[in-house]
Structures are given as C-alpha cells and as structure tokens.
Design brief:
Number of strands: 13
Radius of gyration: 22 Å
Largest sheet: 7 strands, mixed
CATH superfamily of the largest domain: P-loop containing nucleotide triphosphate hydrolases
Order of helices and strands: EEEHEEHEHHHHEHEHEEEHEE
Distance between the termini: 41 Å
CATH class of the largest domain: Alpha Beta
Strand order of the largest sheet: 6-7-8-3-9-10-11
Length: 301
C-alpha cells in the first residue's frame, strides 16, 4: 500500500447558509520517500488536502491513510500523537512556524520538550538539526534577527524535531526571492534524499515544481493531471508545454488522472475549443479510448 493513500476524499465547509465543496472525490497516492509537488489555482483544494494530511482537519467523506494511520478513525489523543510525531509542517508565514520570543535552538527544542525528551538530549538534537539546515552558528538568534530564508531553515529544523515520516510544506518559498527560494528547495531536496523523508509541497513556483519527480495538479477539488519528470530529456525542443504550470514537454510527461470510478478531467483547452456541451460519445478500441463531441463522429471513423 502507498505511504499516503487518499480515496474519494470529500470536504464540505458550511459558511452561513451556504455549503462550499473544497474536495470532490479526490484520490491521491504517494510512495515512501517521494517528493511530490501539488499545484493548482487558488481555491482548488490544495491547502484543504494538506490540512487533512496533517490531521488538522477531517474530511466529510472518504478515506485517508498515512503511514498506516487511518486519519478518519483517530481519536483526539491519537490525532495529537500523529501531529506530534508522524508529520511535520512548514508554513509560508514565519509567524506560524516560529515563536518570536524563543531562540532558534529553543524553537527546535520545544516540540521535543512537548514530546517528553529530556533537556540535554533535546538541545543536543536542536544543535544537530540546525547544523543540518546550515545554521549551526545561529542557535542563539531569535527569529527577528534572522533573514526570511534563515527563518524558513529554522522552521524546517522545527518540523523535523521529532523525526516525522512525512513533511508537509505549504508554499515554503512563497515569501522569498528567487535565490533564497532555490536554497530552501535544495535543502528540502537534500533532506528528502538523506532521510528518506516523504515530502509533499504546495507551490505556485514553476521552478520548484519542475525540479521534483512528480507534480500533481488539483482542479475543482480533484486530482486533474500528473506530470512526471523524464529520465532523459527529449531531443526535440518543440514539444508543447504541459498544461499544469508550463512544465516543458521536453523534460516532463503529462497525463490525465483517472480515478478508481473512471472519472477524469479533460484539459480546459479541450473543453473550451471543442463543442462537447457537457456530453461526449465514447468509442472503445483495442488499445485506446476516443472521446468525440456528440454528433461529430462520422460512421466508419
């Protein structure tokens, strides 16, 4: 079974007298040690999915299993332990990651203290993690004395404090300039490889999405397309860019995701350019399936 397995996830929020559907039967699988990027327009359901994976929210329907933990069946105590030891979070805003009155070392030590680790051991581990993220000489600095990139490095160390198996990062480079953002992504990539750390990143950064092995686009609350990095680039530089966020067809292969019920989302340009009008004729051939706007397929084709 996949390390992360979501089946037919539905999330409905009630806002006054309205119901807002954030997830509409989403399926997702991520293997142990993978580094996956989630992309999509604002409101597509990316952050909702991340909150469910982090046990910060419950789906309205469906199933979500992470590292053998069925998140729809955990009681409050089990959820708290999951949040403390199985998953780590890195948020876009430094204020969500760090306590401003604590030093870098104290911030990294805090989750360990809450987990029952003794003072000597937790500060030794804090120094090791700050060394790992390249801030071994800034253990005594408070967040206000650090740059944005340095704050995110401390945030990553905090997220790793209790050795989680899954790291969730929500726009971790969103407030950083490109050079600093590249450094943060390189660090995340190195940690993914060194620690076999399953990593899921929500991002709008095309450069970051292009560098991971697999990019999954979410549209209207469902997984829409999946783009996988090619083992070797194609010779032709004229291939079309992928519809996700412009990833080159020379370096990536894009496919439409078909869920376990046979549902799929056609690319927007196909729906906009062809007169489907909400219906299609389906022709099943020996090795492929064809979709035709109703009434446009000629006999014998």
């Amino acid at each position: 079974m996949a390390f992360v397995a979501c089946e037919n996830l539905v999330k409905i929020y009630k806002v006054e007298n309205l119901e807002v559907v954030a997830l509409q039967g989403l399926d997702l699988e991520v293997n142990q040690g993978e580094m996956v990027a989630l992309v999509g327009a604002s409101g597509s359901g990316k952050s909702t999915l991340l909150n469910i994976l982090g046990a910060l929210d419950q789906p309205s329907a469906g199933r979500c299993v992470v590292a053998g933990n069925d998140l729809t069946r955990l009681n409050e105590g089990q959820s708290a332990r999951y949040r403390g030891f199985v998953v780590g979070h890195v948020w876009q805003q430094s204020g969500r990651n760090l306590l401003p009155e604590l030093t870098a070392a104290e911030n990294v030590a805090l989750p360990q203290m809450l987990g029952g680790v003794g003072v000597i051991k937790r500060y030794r581990k804090a120094r090791e993690l700050l060394d790992l993220v390249g801030l071994g000489d800034m253990t005594g600095k408070r967040p206000g004395q650090l740059s944005g990139g340095e704050q995110q490095r401390v945030a990553i160390a905090v997220a790793l404090a209790n050795r989680p198996a899954l790291l969730l990062a929500d726009e971790p480079t969103g407030e950083l300039h490109s050079v600093t953002a590249d450094g943060i992504f390189t660090l995340l990539r190195d940690l993914n490889r060194q620690l076999d750390l399953t990593t899921i990143i929500v991002t709008h950064d095309a450069t970051l999405a292009a560098a991971v092995n697999r990019t999954i686009a979410i549209r209207d609350g469902r997984t829409s397309t999946e783009t996988v990095r090619r083992d070797a680039p194609l010779d032709s530089a004229s291939d079309q860019a992928s519809a996700v966020i412009g990833l080159s067809g020379v370096t990536h292969v894009e496919s439409i995701v078909i869920d376990r019920f046979g549902r799929l989302q056609l690319p927007r340009e196909a729906v906009e350019e062809l007169p489907f009008d909400g219906r299609a004729e389906v022709r099943i051939l020996e090795d492929h399936v064809e979709l035709w706007p109703v009434g446009t397929r000629k006999e014998g084709e």
